[in-house]
Structures are given as structure tokens and as C-alpha cells.
TrEMBL record:
PROSITE patterns: NA_SOLUT_SYMP_3 (PS50283). Belongs to the sodium:solute symporter (SSF) (TC 2.A.21) family. It is found in: Membrane. CDD domains: SLC5sbd_u4. This is Cation acetate symporter. It comes from Natronospirillum operosum.
Length: 588
């Protein structure tokens, strides 16, 4: 069976499974639509939460990031997983005990203010729409490879499927569908990793293979990769070269507190029957997430090793060291048709040179001694590395199709969770909570579905014109969550004296400062060409990049909230009593 036919079969079967589950679990009430009736088992909820959170950025883009950043990419691993510890210990059980449907609802009630609720909704929408851009790009990349079409057509196809899938069953349908998607996703991620680990090192466990010797040599795989990249003018893979130590620290911190403040993940802990189940869910989430996240470093390193050795199969600088243009493998033809991988024979020698032509010393030497006239892999999108890896390694078609299905499952699962968070914020928090308190349950659900449609159209447009690759865009969303919602949730639970004026001022200060910083370098509202300064270290404030600024925004939020609360009216006693009640530990 051809690769395209196999891909259609595998992905088609998974779609049939998802839609069947969504129809079976369709909702009949707002409680089921928003929080699945609060009846999800903590183990099942942990699996669904893992799928909800492990988005296209985790499945498709993170290993690509690690492949190109090397050791510096560990910031994404540490930040995203560390945030779950914060969420499990500091937020999940208390918010579940409060017993509301959404994060803005908690903020509005805790800070006795509709204004605070509206600002929380605005923060949630900014975070979720930014986050869903990454999912749309992931869907587009996966579909473009599957359908063998340009990414634009792939993304539009993905938008249609996501919309049909998301409007079926609300949180109840999404939860059970995400459990199925997790199974597809983790199987699709680990099976190729095992095959490639065996192929390169003889060790079937990817986590151990990363520290093993390459097959047929006494050289460790990472050492061999370091040597190859250095020979091509790049920095060593294991060096801290992708970002400064300050940025690595701030990015890790930003991703940690951003994870703990993600509204579409927090709401998952409202779906379990008991308060203690919220903590159990977070623990199980970490177990399920760890399976993929401990595999990702091996996948990234092996993807880079396979790609470099495909283009540069012989000795660097040797006449026959580079692959001939007419001998490029079949997998490259598929990706060239998507526009995400482009070769250009600049010196017309019939071969492809891949090297760091930004390294002036190496580039000058390569031109003088070997006649190289620039890097001939002119486009190599980081987001394709995981999806292309099985093809690079020459694995069977069913494995390649399985990875495509896993990438689509990852993007769909998170997109559905984000769309639900967006729709519930508009229908439940704005319409019912602020503007139309007497709206019927049926009207509220209709508004939720309409808002889903608007959100996916906007996210689709931004997915076609993204401010960065998938994981980078998602990192911006985490930074916005860190700067806006995490501080106010923490202060709402652990600072009885924090009043509404402080919370409102803190959220606005954190959100606005972080958004402005991002827009200055990424373009206003992510519109290409509208950035005021180049997005490079020479122009960043104190060398802090846009993905790391969320931690600074969180600090601004905390500081402004504290100062404003000190000079304004105190918190009412009944609110202090409510906070005290939320914080009392209970076994139930």
C-alpha cells in the first residue's frame, strides 16, 4: 500500500473513532458542556489532561526545537513539566474546592468584581487565541504532509475538521475523545523512537539510547553529533549556544508559571468528583506526560543526526561528501511540495551543501577550499523534524502514517480544549456572568458554539501568518498566562488581604507590559511587517527575548497588585472568610 493510501487509512480510522466518541458522549446540559458533570475518574482525567496539554508544540515542534537548540532546548522540557508540579500543589485542589465552571468565574467571585472577571476573560482570550495559533500551524503541517498539498490548503482542511469535532459534545465529549487521542499520540511518538534508537545505537529504549554509542563505533551518539555539527561550522549540540543563561532561566520560569496558569488546563481539574481527585489527576498527568517528554530529547538528537547524515553522508569537504541533487531520497520530495523544506544548488555542482554560512570564518574557508557558495538547504522548518524523522530513517509506511495521525491527534486535542475555554469565557463569563444574566441554558450553549466558530476563523488566519514556529508561538501563550492569570490566582488563594483594585491593576500591568514587549518585536497583533524593532538580541531589553519575558511580566503583576492593594480599601470580611474556607484542607 502506498504511503498516501496508508496515511488516509490510519488517519481516517482515528477520525472515525474521535467522532464516534464525541457523538456517544454528546452533552445535554451546561454542566456537562463546561465541566463534564464533574464525574471524570482522576486516572482518565489525567490522561485527558495530558492530551489536552501535550499539543502540536509538544508532539510536532518540541523535538524540532531540541534538534536545533541542543542543550538549550531543555528549558522547554523543564518549564512545561515543572509547571504541573506547581499546579498540583498550589492551584488545582483549591480551585476545585471553590466549585465554579471557569477561571474568570473564580477571579470575579474572589475579587468581588465584574471588572476583574472581564479582565480575566480578556486575558484568557489573548492566551487561548495565541496558543491555538500554534495548534492551527501544527494541524496545517500535518495535513499538508498527509494530503501532499501546500500548508495553506492543509491548514484550511484542518480548520474544518477541528470545527466539526469541537462543537459536538463540550467538555464531556472532548474528555473521552482526548483519552483516545492520548493513546494514538503516545503510541505514534514512541514506536518510531524505538525503531530509530535500535537503528542508530542498538538500544531499544530511546531515553537510554541517547547516551549510548553509535552502531559499529566506540563513539557516543551525542559526541558524534557534536563532532559532525562542529565540522559543518555549527555550535556543538551539547553546548549552551541557543540562548543566554539569563534567557534560559527566565524562559524556564515563564513556562513553569505559565503552565500553572493555563485556563484550559486548570478547568480540567473542575471535572473530577472530589477535591482530592484534583491532585491525583495532576499526578497522573505528570506520569502520562513524562512518557513523551523523556523521549523527546532522544527524538530531537536522532532527527538531527539522521538529517545531517542524509545530506552529508561522507567526509566534510570531500568531493563526494555531499548528496547529489538527483539522489535526494523520496521523503524530501514530499516535504519540498509543502514548501517547508527547500534545496537550492547555489554553486551548480549537482550536490547539496548543508553548513552554517552565518559563521563568517567557516563560510570563507568553505568557499575558498571547496567552492561552497552558501547553505543550500535554504528552508528547513523546525516543525517538520518529528513528522519527517521516520521517512529520514527509512521506516515502513505504516509508521510514517502513524506519526501523521499522532501529530494531528496532538493538535486536535489541544485545539478542542482551547476552543472550549474560549467559548465558555464568552458565553458563560461575559454573556451570562456580565451582560445577559437571564440568558437561557439553550441560548448559552448556542452562544458557546458560535464563539467557537469565530475563534477558529481568527486562529486559522493567524496560523497562516504565524509569529514563529509552533513551539515558539506556544511559548508566547505561556508567557502571557504567566504574566496575567497565574499571579492573580496565587494571590487570590494565598493572600486574603489582596483586594479587587490590586488584582485588576496587577492583571492589566502584567498583560499589557508582556503584550507590548511581544508586539514590538513580533509585530502588532502578530501582523507580519508591523514590528517596531528587529527580533534579535541586539535590541531586546537587557537581552531578554520575547518568550522569556512572561516571567518579568509576572513580577510586574505581583508588584503592582501588592502596591495598589496597600493604598486602597481593604478586602471585605466575607471574602476573607471565603478564602479561608477554600484553603482549609479536606479529605473529600
Amino acid at each position: 500500500m502506498s504511503l498516501q493510501a496508508m496515511s488516509f487509512l490510519v488517519v481516517g480510522l482515528t477520525f472515525a473513532l474521535y467522532i464516534g466518541i464525541a457523538i456517544w458522549a454528546r452533552t445535554a446540559s451546561t454542566s456537562e458542556f463546561y465541566v463534564a458533570g464533574k464525574g471524570i475518574n482522576p486516572v482518565a482525567n489525567g490522561m485527558a489532561t495530558a492530551a489536552d496539554w501535550m499539543s502540536a508544540a509538544s508532539f510536532i515542534s518540541m523535538a524540532g526545537l531540541i534538534a536545533f537548540l541542543g542543550y538549550s532546548g531543555a528549558a522547554y522540557l523543564m518549564g512545561w513539566t515543572g509547571g504541573y508540579v506547581l499546579m498540583a500543589l498550589l492551584l488545582a485542589p483549591y480551585l476545585r474546592k471553590f466549585g465554579k465552571f471557569t477561571v474568570p468565574e473564580f477571579i470575579g467571585d474572589r475579587f468581588y468584581s465584574k471588572t476583574a472577571r472581564v479582565i480575566a476573560v480578556i486575558s484568557l482570550l489573548v492566551i487561548s487565541i495565541t496558543y491555538v495559533i500554534g495548534q492551527m500551524r501544527g494541524v496545517g503541517i500535518a495535513f499538508s504532509n498527509l494530503l501532499n498539498v501546500p500548508i495553506t490548503i492543509g491548514l484550511v482542511s484542518g480548520m474544518v475538521v477541528v470545527f466539526i469535532y469541537a462543537v459536538f459534545g463540550g467538555m464531556k465529549g472532548i474528555t473521552y475523545t482526548q483519552i483516545a487521542q492520548y493513546c494514538v499520540m503516545i503510541f505514534a511518538y514512541t514506536v518510531p523512537a524505538v525503531f530509530i534508537a535500535l537503528q542508530l545505537t542498538g538500544n531499544p529504549i530511546p531515553q537510554l539510547a541517547l547516551g549510548s554509542t553509535a552502531v559499529g563505533t566506540d563513539t557516543f551518539l551525542l559526541e558524534a553529533l557534536d563532532n559532525t555539527l562542529v565540522d559543518l561550522g555549527f555550535a556543538a549540540y551539547t553546548s549552551l549556544s541557543g540562548m543566554s543563561q539569563l534567557n534560559m532561566f527566565l524562559l524556564t520560569l515563564s513556562l513553569m508559571i505559565g503552565t500553572a496558569g493555563l485556563p484550559h488546563v486548570i478547568v480540567r481539574f473542575f471535572t473530577v468528583p472530589k477535591i482530592r481527585d484534583a491532585r491525583k489527576s495532576a499526578g497522573w498527568s505528570l506520569v502520562f506526560i513524562a512518557i513523551l517528554y523523556t523521549t523527546a530529547p532522544a527524538v530531537g538528537a536522532m532527527a538531527m543526526w539522521n538529517f545531517v547524515n542524509t545530506v552529508q553522508p561522507g567526509e566534510v569537504g570531500a568531493e563526494t561528501g555531499n548528496i547529489q541533487v538527483d539522489e535526494l531520497p523520496e521523503w524530501t520530495e514530499r516535504w519540498q511540495q509543502t514548501g517547508l523544506l527547500v534545496f537550492e544548488d547555489k554553486n551548480n555542482d549537482g550536490r547539496i551543501q548543508y553548513y552554517n554560512d552565518q559563521n563568517e570564518e567557516f563560510a570563507a574557508m568553505a568557499e575558498e577550499e571547496w567552492g561552497w557558495e552558501g547553505n543550500e538547504v535554504t528552508t528547513l522548518d523546525r516543525d517538520i523534524m518529528v513528522l519527517a524523522n521516520p521517512g529520514i530513517a527509512g521506516l515502513p509506511n505504516w509508521v510514517i502514517a502513524l506519526v501523521a495521525a499522532g501529530g494531528i491527534a496532538a493538535a486536535l486535542s489541544t485545539a478542542a480544549g482551547l476552543l472550549l475555554a474560549i467559548s465558555s469565557a464568552i458565553s458563560h463569563d461575559l454573556l451570562k456572568g456580565v451582560w445577559m444574566p437571564n440568558i437561557s441554558e439553550r441560548g448559552e450553549m448556542r452562544a458557546a458554539r458560535i464563539s467557537m466558530a469565530g475563534a477558529i476563523l481568527l486562529a486559522g488566519y493567524l496560523g497562516l501568518n504565524p509569529p514563529g514556529f509552533a513551539a515558539e508561538v506556544v511559548a508566547l501563550a505561556f508567557g502571557l498566562a504567566a504574566a496575567s492569570l497565574f499571579p492573580v490566582l496565587m494571590m487570590g488563594i494565598f493572600m486574603k488581604s489582596m483586594n479587587k483594585q490590586g488584582a485588576i491593576a496587577g492583571m492589566l500591568a502584567g498583560l499589557i507590559s508582556t503584550l507590548l514587549y511581544i508586539f514590538v518585536f513580533k509585530g502588532w497583533f502578530f501582523i507580519p511587517g508591523t514590528n517596531m524593532l528587529p527580533d534579535s538580541a541586539d535590541y531586546w531589553l537587557f537581552g531578554i527575548n520575547t518568550g522569556s519575558f512572561g516571567a518579568v511580566g509576572a513580577g510586574i503583576n505581583f508588584l503592582v497588585a501588592y502596591l495598589v492593594s496597600r493604598v486602597t480599601a481593604g478586602t471585605p470580611e466575607h471574602i476573607k472568610a471565603m478564602v479561608e474556607e477554600v484553603r482549609v484542607p479536606r479529605a473529600a
